[in-house]
Write a structure and sequence with these properties.
CATH superfamily of the largest domain in chain A: P-loop containing nucleotide triphosphate hydrolases
Order of helices and strands of chain A: EEEHEEHEHHHEHEHEEHHEEEHEEEEHH
Number of strands of chain B: 0
Largest interface: A-B, 66 and 54 residues
CATH architecture of the largest domain in chain A: 3-Layer(aba) Sandwich
Radius of gyration of chain B: 24 Å
CATH architecture of chain B: Orthogonal Bundle
Structural class of chain A: alpha/beta
CATH topology of chain B: ABC transporter involved in vitamin B12 uptake, BtuC
Oligomer: heterodimer
Strand content of chain A: 25-35%
Distance between the termini of chain B: 39 Å
Strand order of the largest sheet of chain A: 6-7-8-3-9-10
Strand content of chain B: under 5%
Chain lengths: 356, 381
């Protein structure tokens, strides 16, 4: 098939408000997607991620443009027809007691069953396969209300899968989960897209996970402008700084993560290796120090000697303090913050608002 | 058409690609048992109880009739005494049938509303239908007619039908308003508030009518609010029966959208449910059931809110394909028991039905709730 799976033609999303002109949240943009891709929508809060996803899911009409799935306009399909090609996992936490995992996944067969909802052998096969795909077979007999948030999310993804869609849309599927579960769900979704040839479109706040796993990123900035492309291209183009532009955070190109502004403004020398060094560096950076290798003597030096009684040695202006923890080291540093170099520059840079 | 009208076809094969790693790990029979299984013994026991209660209602009353005679009359023969035949056929049988229909209807209407609004406190009357019926009755009893009491005297005979007509008209008017509002209001929650406000409006109007009325009429109105299955004649059953049967059948057909709505309107929509049509069908069905029953039996509380909870708890299911028929069964049984208790066997006293349903029912439901704390879990927050 030469047609792309999904084709957005100048789609803009927003809200109709009676006779007044519609409120456009997401500016018009066009993009095509092939089958089997994982696409992440990221952007600051209120940029319109959910609005855009709801529009593509056919839950609200686009303010402009059209969304084609396999060459057909999603908003002109009947609800039943659309449900066989597109399924969703919403951001709300699912609370539905007295339903087992299996019964909930079975709901995904609704677009295929008759009025009395009888499940054929084949429906059961799809349900089992959907459960297997998300690794939730052991949850089949468990009531939903006895499941953790991560388990519920797997069941909801299996339910969406049981609809056998070409396109799965998930609004912040990792929102309620702890970090390991977020990684797990993201890897699961990427695997699903690859294995089953379904395209997965999701919104997330997990920038790092999105950067690592997405085949495509749609970056929405706070003016509703969408930049679409490969994650790495967007990083190099500086799209992240633009989208998340804010006085207090900046995007670090090397680590691919956001840092609090004001980091690395006060130089400090850290000598030492190993795990202790990594975490000492973190603590220093959090306090606003830039860790450098070489510096004049008037710059503070921290030396690590892991086997000593006081592993951390701080030398400032020839004065030396030995400390037995990073906390004590920070206290020692803090005691010297009256020293000339940090505070003044700090304020000049307009960085630390607490000072200003 | 990008994909053939199938329940398998392309999508099915995709999920069965040989490279999917977990494939075949499912022991099919083991996973299949994950679908909720009904409790056949419990259902059989409830059915038995329904039959026993039905016969008891026919046999026991101010005059006791042997069960053999009851069965004989039901089979079309004459009882040992001709008066027994008349008592059973003309009085007790229509009452028992009314109780079964009303109990099933109120239970199912309550179930529809609890699911539709995703609110465990919803009952058949949240739409304001019974308030409309009350206002209709209040208008007839309290306001219309001469000052003479001859109208009130007439109430006993043909007046029942007048009340039913007034109540139906009141319920129908509210139904129209609700359906009209449902087309414009996006969220179910606003509809719930709307129904609540209707209730306040109508009860305010009724209060005013009561205030300016004479004691005899107030008495007549209050008697209506007590609720009763006894006033329904065969002639009225001809209307009541088909209306409720139709409502129950419609509710049975609505199992699929109702199940989908358990996940919320957005999910239901994403699973191919036509929300407008489902909403219209659910509201109409509820209003017809609640309106008809209120018109003929008065506003009977408690059954509509308690029976669905009882069924969820007893059978541990929220699947409407099962829950709807179960609610009919339990609702009918509860109504029969309430009617039986209200008639105070062996005496001539008839207690207000509404008081009995709550007095007997509330402790039972509280007991069930405390024993099995799974009621609130069946609702999304």
């Amino acid at each position: 098939m030469t047609d792309p799976l999904i084709h957005l033609h100048d789609v803009s999303a927003g809200y109709f408000q009676g006779r007044r002109p519609p409120l456009v949240v997401v500016q018009p943009f066009s993009v095509t997607l092939d089958a089997g891709k994982l696409v992440c929508v990221i952007g600051p809060n209120g940029a319109g991620k959910s609005t855009l996803l709801r529009t593509i899911a056919g839950m609200q009409n686009p303010v402009g443009g059209r969304v084609d799935l396999r060459g057909r306009d999603i908003h002109r399909m009947s609800a039943a027809e659309r449900a066989r090609q597109l399924s969703v996992v919403l951001t709300q936490r699912t609370e539905i007691g007295l339903f087992t995992g299996y019964a909930l996944v079975a709901m995904g067969r609704q677009p295929y069953t008759s009025w009395h909802g009888h499940l054929s052998e084949q429906d059961h096969a799809v349900i089992r396969e959907s459960l297997a795909q998300v690794g939730a077979l052991p949850l089949a007999g468990r009531p939903i209300n006895a499941m953790s948030d991560g388990e519920r999310q797997k069941i909801m993804i299996a339910r969406a899968l049981a609809q056998e869609p070409d396109l799965m849309i998930l609004d912040e599927p990792t929102a309620f989960l702890d970090l390991p579960r977020r990684v797990e769900v993201m890897l699961l979704l990427r695997g699903l897209a690859r294995r089953t040839g379904r395209t997965v479109l999701l919104s997330t706040h997990d920038l790092d996970l999105a950067l690592r796993n997405a085949d495509h990123l749609w970056l929405i900035d706070d003016r509703g402008t969408v930049t679409a492309g490969l994650p790495e291209d967007l990083v190099l183009q500086g799209a992240f700084e633009t989208a998340f532009a804010s006085a207090n955070v900046e995007f670090d190109l090397e680590s691919g993560a956001f840092k609090t502004n004001g980091m690395g403004k006060r130089p400090i020398v850290l000598q030492g290796e190993g795990i202790a060094s990594v975490w000492t560096r973190r603590a220093l950076e959090r306090e606003g120090y830039a860790v450098v290798d070489q510096a004049p003597d008037d710059i503070p030096h921290v030396t690590l000697s892991p086997d000593a009684e006081h592993p951390w040695t701080l030398v400032v202006s020839g004065e030396s303090h030995g400390t037995d923890s990073i906390g004590a080291l920070m206290d020692a540093l803090g005691g010297m913050s009256a020293s000339p170099f940090p505070t003044k520059r700090h304020v000049q840079d307009g960085i630390d608002r607490r000072d200003g | 058409m990008s994909r053939p009208e199938n329940s398998g076809g392309q999508g099915y094969e995709t999920t069965h690609r040989p490279d999917s790693p977990e494939r075949g790990t499912a022991a099919p029979s083991a996973v299949r048992t994950a679908m909720p299984v009904l409790k056949p013994v419990l259902i059989a026991a409830l059915l038995m109880a329904l039959v026993v209660m039905f016969l008891t209602t026919l046999a026991v009353g101010s005059v006791s009739i042997p069960v053999e005679d009851v069965v004989r009359v039901l089979l079309g023969h004459d009882a040992a005494r001709p008066s027994w035949t008349r008592i059973i056929l003309d009085f007790r049988l229509p009452q028992a049938i009314t109780a079964i229909l009303a109990g099933a209807g109120l239970g199912v209407a309550g179930l529809l509303m609890q699911t539709f609004f995703r609110n465990p406190l919803a009952d058949p009357f949240v739409l304001g239908v019974s308030s409309g019926a009350s206002l209709g009755v209040a208008l007839v009893v309290l306001a219309v007619g001469g000052v003479t009491t001859s109208f009130l005297a007439g109430l006993g005979l043909m007046g029942d039908l007048a009340l039913a007509v007034a109540a139906s008209a009141g319920a129908a008017v509210v139904l129209m308003i609700v359906l009209f509002a449902a087309r414009r209001i996006a969220s179910g929650m606003s509809l719930l508030v709307l129904g609540l406000l209707f209730g306040y409006l109508t009860s305010a109007a009724v209060s005013l009518l009561l205030y300016f009325s004479i004691p005899e009429r107030i008495q007549a109105y209050i008697t209506w609010t007590f609720g009763s299955f006894t006033g329904v004649t065969w002639g009225q059953l001809v209307i009541l029966g088909p209306m409720i049967a139709g409502g129950l059948f419609a509710a049975f057909l609505l199992g699929k959208p109702l199940n989908a709505l358990l996940l919320g309107e957005s999910y239901a929509f994403s699973m191919g449910i036509n929300l407008m049509r489902a909403r219209f069908a659910i509201l109409t069905t509820t209003a017809v059931l609640a309106g008809t029953i209120t018109a003929f039996c008065g506003p009977i509380g408690f059954i509509g809110i308690a029976v669905p909870h009882l069924c969820r708890s007893l059978f541990n299911t929220a699947d409407h394909h099962q829950l709807t028929p179960l609610t009919m069964l339990v609702g009918a049984l509860v109504a029969l028991i309430a009617a039986f208790a209200a008639s105070v066997p062996g005496s001539n006293i008839v207690l207000p039905l509404n008081a009995v349903t709550s007095l007997i029912g509330a402790p039972v439901v509280i007991w069930v709730l405390l024993r099995r704390q799974n009621i609130k879990e069946s609702f999304s927050s």
